Amino acid sequence: MTAIHVGNLSKTFARPPGGHPGKARALDDVSLDIGKGEMVALIGASGSGKSTLIRHLSGLVIADRGIIGRTGEVTIAGEQMQCNGRLSPHVRRLRADVAVIFQQFNLVGRLSLLENVLLGGLGRIGFWRGSLGRFNRMEKLAAMEALARVGMADYAMQRASTLSGGQQQRGAIARALVQKAAIILADEPIASLDPESARRVMDSLSTINAEDGTTVVVSLHQVAYAKKYCPRAIALAQGRVVFDGPSRALDVPTLCTLYGAQCEELLMDETLGAEPFPPVDDVGGVPPLRAVGIRGV
């Protein structure tokens, strides 16, 4: 079963004042399908369109309208989230099935970690009870169980603002568990973390995928994590899909062909306990700083 379908998705943004005239294209005719229960890495250098794509998948951003036909289409488990520049009237219900984990954690610093995790259930309880924070005993037990799964139960009553970045991110994952989302979208969840914290976050996402069958799409800045944790990788460059296949196929020559000089940005990682990637210019004679035209790939 297809968990996520994207059809001919494009997005342009107005350039900031003082920049080049016209508009910048963040996504360029992106089409892809992700099956239920897959764990997929979304990789690419800075500015490749990863975060923009995740925001479209969660219904937080609306795609460009096409001239004809069904363009800019995003469906979640067969139900349309948006199409041709318009959100579905059922988008609120669909968002409840899609949890987004942001790079900035998005926890409320003055609340306890437990209270933050309980907020994951707001979309599934009554408005007034949620607004007043009136969670029942079963909901609190479910939140504690979610914290235990990510190794954070001992910090349940601690203010979120006092936790480290890695601890806050695992709290955000527990919040996604309480949301009972069928799909987790993680937007560079380890970008600002130290290697050990990054490993724990990725281990938590991988365990949820394996044990619960949750579909996980995780945006990653470096390829080593994609190869270790995600069987499939989708690579973006200049807003286009330039690779979609097994993560293990993302060797250095392939990355240099796809990204040219930017490939070094994706290879800087020696923290996963594996042998580091060899220097780019020592692999198959591929020079490190020769840009390759993406549209010709």
How would you summarize the topology of this molecule?
Elements: E1 2-14, E2 23-35, E3 39-43, H1 50-57, E4 73-76, E5 79-83, E6 86-87, H2 91-95, E7 98-101, H3 113-118, H4 127-131, H5 137-149, H6 165-179, E8 183-187, H7 195-212, E9 215-220, H8 223-229, E10 232-237, E11 240-246, H9 252-259, H10 263-267
Parallel strand pairs: 3-9, 3-10, 7-8, 8-9
Antiparallel strand pairs: 1-2, 1-4, 4-5, 5-6, 10-11
Keywords:
single chain, 297 residues, alpha/beta, Rossmann fold, 6-stranded mixed sheet, 5-stranded antiparallel sheet, 30% helix, 24% strand
Can you put this structure into words, describing what you see?
The structure is a single chain. The chain is α/β, with parallel strands linked by helices. The chain has a domain at 2-97 and 217-296: Rossmann fold (3-Layer(aba) Sandwich). Helix content is 30%, strand content 24%. The strands form two sheets. The protein has a six-stranded mixed β-sheet with strand order 7-8-9-3-10-11, with helices on both faces. A five-stranded antiparallel β-sheet has the order 2-1-4-5-6. A hairpin with an 8-residue loop joins strand 1 (2-14) and strand 2 (23-35). Helix 5 (137-149) crosses helix 6 and helix 6 (165-179) runs parallel beside helix 7. The longest helix is centred in the last third of the chain and has 18 residues, at 195-212. The radius of gyration is 20 Å and the shape is globular. The two termini are 30 Å apart. Mean pLDDT is 86; it is low at 273-297.
